[in-house]
Amino acid sequence: MSKHGCSGADICCAPLAAAPVDVDQAAEVAAAFKALSDPVRVRLLSLIASHPGGEAYVNNLISAFDLTGPTISHHLRVLRQAGLIDCERRGTWVFYWVVPAALERLSTVLTVPARSPS
Amino acid sequence: MSKHGCSGADICCAPLAAAPVDVDQAAEVAAAFKALSDPVRVRLLSLIASHPGGEAYVNNLISAFDLTGPTISHHLRVLRQAGLIDCERRGTWVFYWVVPAALERLSTVLTVPARSPS
DNA sequence: CGTCCGTGTAGAAGACTGTCAATATAGGCA
DNA sequence: TGCCTATATTGACAGTCTTCTACACGGACG
């Protein structure tokens, strides 16, 4: 799920402010941030990440919103394709959890390095 | 330019993974990330941030892309309304620079706190 | 084996976004 | 004053995104 078509899964860790990013890096970073550009997905990620045990199952997530199941399913897929979360089926339920490394990569990208005093 | 209608300018610093964000916080965070969800804007931000002196003027930015002036102007406005950059006119040219605090807030939001070993 | 429940997929409507050409504004300079 | 350069605004078009309803899949359980 992280070697093939899943854009945004392996982002270079250099901060944006350190040096001009090239076109490919910019596309990857933008794709990852696009996954976080919707309030529902931000809340989903936060709900999953802060869930006791670090996992949440879908029905639990759906009931936190005033949206239909397919809509939540769509947003979960966007987050998963961006490499920010992953999931596993256990019997009837599907459990989701965050991929900490992906969040930390994005966090690093936004870091502002101490500016050299030119 | 950063107190009034500019949504996304003052984001709560708590990491998403620490506790479930409320609806308003999620909207603010998502709005900020939406500004970073386009490859052109990611490159613009990186170009401005890594420019010698921390400032860049528009013509310099336009010539880095295969896009028209109005398009770059549009993207700069999106970044500015998100509070990520700010600008000032000096004679004929307009200079842009990044707002480090805004980037650092977003970076903190993506931090994954050490999970309590429940 | 059949039914129910949880989850995902398909297709469509409406809103939003990125881009451009054309035009406007604002400042320097002759 | 009048022109030229630099930047922003407007309006339009094509593409994408969010959301829904309707339906399909897959496991549990009687």
TrEMBL record, chains A, B:
RNA-binding among keywords: no
Entries under Gene3D superfamilies matching the protein: Winged helix-like DNA-binding domain superfamily/Winged helix DNA-binding domain
Domain of life: Bacteria
UniProt xrefs under CDD domains: HTH_ARSR
InterPro entries associated with the record: ArsR-like_HTH, HTH_ArsR_DNA-bd_dom, HTH_MetalResp_TranReg, WH-like_DNA-bd_sf, WH_DNA-bd_sf
UniProt keyword annotations, A-Z: DNA-binding, Transcription, Transcription regulation
Record-linked PANTHER family: ARSENICAL RESISTANCE OPERON REPRESSOR (PTHR33154:SF18), TRANSCRIPTIONAL REGULATOR, ARSR FAMILY (PTHR33154)
Pfam families: HTH_20 (PF12840)
Protein name per the record: HTH arsR-type domain-containing protein
SMART domains documented for this protein: HTH_ARSR
Domain HTH arsR-type: from-to ranges: 21-118
